[in-house]
UniProtKB/TrEMBL annotation:
Signal peptide extent: none
InterPro entries, per the entry: Apaf_helical (IPR042197), Leu-rich_rpt_typical-subtyp (IPR003591), LRR_dom_sf (IPR032675), LRR_R13L4/SHOC2-like (IPR055414), NB-ARC (IPR002182), P-loop_NTPase (IPR027417), RX-like_CC (IPR038005), Rx_N (IPR041118)
Taxonomy of the source species: Eukaryota, Viridiplantae, Streptophyta, Embryophyta, Tracheophyta
Domain called Disease resistance protein winged helix: residue spans: 474-543
The name this protein goes by in its record: NB-ARC domain-containing protein
Keyword annotations: ATP-binding, Coiled coil, Leucine-rich repeat, Nucleotide-binding, Plant defense, Repeat
SMART domains (alphabetical): LRR_TYP (SM00369)
Pfam families given in the database record: LRR_14, NB-ARC, Rx_N, WHD_DRP
Record has rRNA-binding as a keyword: no
Disease resistance N-terminal domain location: 49-131
Biological process annotations from GO: defense response; response to other organism
Molecular function terms, GO-annotated: ADP binding; ATP binding
Annotated Disease resistance R13L4/SHOC-2-like LRR domain residues: 610-934
Similarity comment text for this entry: Belongs to the disease resistance NB-LRR family.
Amino acid sequence: YFSVFAVLHNTNEAGFCFALNLLYSTTSQVTEAAAMGMGLEDLASYVESMLTEMAREKVGLLLGVSSEIQSMENKLRFLKDYFADADRRVIADESVRDWVAQLKQIMYGATDIIDLCQHEAMERGPSATRVVRRFTPLLFCIRNPSVAHDIGSRIKALNQRLDAIMERSAAFNFLSRRDMDHGGEVHTSHPYNFKTSGELDRSDVVGEKIEEATEALVAEIIKTRNEVNNDIAVVAIVGVCGIGKTTLAQKVFNDEAIQGEFDKKIWLSINKHFNKADLLRTAITQAGGDSCPTNDEMDMLVDILADALAGKKVLLVMDDVWYPTAWECVLKKPFFNAAARGSRVLITTRREDVARRMRAQHPCHRVDKLGPEDAWSLMKKQIMGNNTHETELDELKDIGLQIIANCGGLPLAIKVMGGVLSVRHVQRPDWMRVLNDFIPSCELPEVINHSVYLSYEDLAPCLKQCFLHYSLLPTNAVFYENDIVGMWISEGFIHGNSHDYWRDSEDLGSEYYRELILRNLIEPDARYTSQLVCNMNDVVRSFAQSICRDEALVAHNGDMYGYLSSRKFYQLSLESKELESDMLVWSLVQEQTSLRTLVSIGQIKLKPGDSLMAFPSPRTLHIESTNAAVLVESLCQLKHLRYLSVAHTDVSSLPENINTMKFLQHINLQGCESFEKLPDSIIKLEQLRYLNLNDTGINVIPRGFCILTNLSKLYGFPAYMDGNWCSLEELWPLSRLKEIELKGLDNVAAGLFAESASLYQMRLSYLKLECSTRVGGGGLVIEGRSVFQDEENQRIEAVFDELHPPQRLSTLVIQGYFGLQLPVWMRTEDRLECLVVLTMEDLACCTQLPCCLSQLPYLEVLKIQRAPAISCVGPEFLGVSEHHDQTAIMFPRLHELVFSGMVKWEEWVWEKQLNAMPALEELLVDNCKLRSFPPGLAFRARALRRLVVTAAQNLNSLDSFASVVELDVYFSPTLTSIANLHQLQKLTIIFCPKLEKLIGVPAIRRLVLEDYDMETLPRYLQDVGNLSLLQLDCSLELLTSIAMGQPGPEWKKYSHVKHVEAYAHDGDNQREWYVLYTKDPYKFETNINQRSSKLAAVGKGEDKLIGKEAEQLLGIDSSSDSAVSEDNSELVGIENPCQSIIKLLTHGDEEELKMVSICGTGGLGKTTVAHAVYRKIANEFKYNFFVDMPRNLDIKVIIGTICAEVGCPRPKFEECGVQQLVDRLKIFFEGK
């Protein structure tokens, strides 16, 4: 940019046009990318290549600016040599940071100029923008005198600023790339190169998780010949920086079983910038090899290492591997050529792709974050000394846990903060100062910064920008992959290849997203499938935000809104609560006239006249607020806007002149329930790539929709008829569509109309076909819809038959289909040969599953949810027929299988001789009448590691699943026996009252048992001898018996367990009472003895609870967002409405369900009244809960929260749908 603008002084019009055109060609692909997270080197390389091409074609001579072109090329080549050093120094050097910030301002200004030129040309219509060359729009603008004058003035102003910036650059003495490569002094705040060893620091080891992980890894490493290929194998430990990978590897390295298994053990600390010769010398020394030569002759060192390893069984640990080269190019040859069979390589790495490229065994072992209690134990170990007692520390546990929460569960961060606390007094004021100082906006301790910096430094420039942008998103809102990638594209971080028909910007953005996951910089949220939602660790987020702090503000709940009036930002990420005091004041936001990105979650305080007109150049606008509709009225003023999301808001329409927003690419209206009609002018948004209409009231679309040929993703497209015209006809020209969801297909009159969509001609990778559901919450056909006319079945079958997708489809979802048999293209194996994921929901009439599914070569995930007409999954499901090939493997790649809500399913046929599902790893069976699992499943599914069984009404036993490691069994009333699961390590049993036998589980380490109706502990606990952890949720009566300890009747059943955690709920506090027991060293804790004193404090017969103790007894958490407040200052004048509401709720027929609504405008006091009513009558009910219902609610989260508050057991959150949670609540609340 320095060069492009510097030549414009005193140049002629031809040179002016050329420079603008060159600038356009550059910025249209890389300017926005350079604007955040540096990106200078990418920009310079692109411009340099453009200049070389111009010189070669003698364009400069034609324009009369050949000398200026040569000068620009030389300057760029010169400056590019120093960008790497500037990139390193910007993190720690404030003066360099300021210099870069000024440079970014100019880059932002340049992009605005280009947008204005492009917009002006697009406004003139297609004839003006017909591309003769890529510079045409700018040349058109120059021919418009007023536009040319405005652009020229802007460029000259930017030039004057650039002169000063270039002069300042000389003062920084940036190192050239050559100096850096040859050992020049690098200006960086992270010069360290940490080395680790195999020696284990016992103070780093806390909790049961690391013991279980060690045992699992040791078992994997020393598997016998019969269990695994006994050639040299690689085992990987993967996790984010600082999470404890090295500690786990050290524990494995020093395990007693390992000592006797291997002849030699070698520990190599690889690090990012390893030296090959030094690596070999270290390996030779640890292997007991001959003395090493002093030179770096690689062949000689390899031979010496091979001699040392010859015939020996070796364990090699490679710690902190960044690239596969240390193995592939250095160590692999001597190990494979010399070490004995059965040797093993254990690696630790932050990057899952490294493990894959080293061909590590699947699945890799992922290290989990520390839980609060284990983290507290680790922190205490860092603090405790001769003069500090544990009881003193436990008095400050509440503050310690808050500090731990800021550490994101990372052991490294916890140890560092423990070190900080160790030099402070063990007093509340001192610890509070540490807590208040350690917030995300502050600098992290150096050792943590360094650890994260290494991961950041290793990113390509484009990934750095995406990583930094992700760190700015509010933590309490859900952002899907589509949202993230859409923002990245709008910000200019991603540019697809326009010449590659099959790979566009969205594909590239998804690759970047997966790359950040593989590098453990973002972590998939287990509650969502297919990694669609991720989280960023708090420590990693803090580091990233510190880099962006000069141009981005991240503020939550009003804590940093003061900055809005004192500084200018380019990116704002704001999150506010619904309380008026925490609302976002829009007038403060309007002062940010340089804003390019605005993400606002929560309530906004608006006053008359507030609008979006104050922002001249935003690219991204993401608002989730109940009063966003007012702002949308001025939306068309945002000429530069690319990304618009107003999901889950009160927006009911878009401006009729939305076609003036020429750059708009991404529109998300999901959840705008009152939105019923798209503006007709939306069809003129030629750049539109993404449109989400899910969960809106839109049932029609404008005619002419078919001209939006750049659409790549389209969700919630309504199928409807208008006479002889069907909306599906609008789809066939949209050949660039990759993902589409069609709803209301039951409205289509005939298959002929569906055929017009021509889905098979598209390049779809994802397709959802949806009809209005006929299946209700209980899994049965909804009353009144149980009788289908033959013509209805035939019509929907004909419609679906004509909607056959292209062969390259990878994900298919069918919902609400009510044909008797599935579409013909699902019964023909070659039609879906690339399918990877198949989900079918609400199959009201299908009586059997198609046979060809078993022969799909790439199918990995199959989910059947709510199919009430299926009573038997027979041999046809596995492809058995008269012409069946006995040697064929059915479902060869399937690794996840779900059968849920098949309420009449009783039989599953699969004989042992049928070879199927060799790769199956997870199986979930829910809400059925299955009597037993087929013998073929246990015999053939040898990779099955996780089995989840819920609400299996007739199941008697689970037996002989030899490979299962984790078993969850919920709500199975007839289950009596679990036996012969020899690899089982984790077992969860919830409400299985008849279970009497648990045998043949020698590897079990963890048992979770939940049943509030149990009167005594089950006898089978005494037969489980190797149990490390027993976690029990039970009735208060049983917990009281357990709390008696050794004299009590339950002692013999649990005394042999290493750790016991037992809990009972009280009110809506699920774990109010507890017993904690450790066998060695002996420790026994309980608070049951405090219960009687708390009850006495409340008093018998009192209907009013007073004080904190009473709050706890009711299970009310006054510190939570939806707490039932005891602030009496809010209780003025509400006694009468409270009494009226209580009367409505409690008087009359006790058997009648009563629902009372409190209505009123915002701020009137509805919540205060509800709190008061709740406090007064909550203890009259056995179960009570107070739930906050935000505008953009996730119903699954809400129901899951209710389950948690009342103590209703449920499957793991990520494995259950809304209806499953509702079913659990129905069972739990029955008769209560």
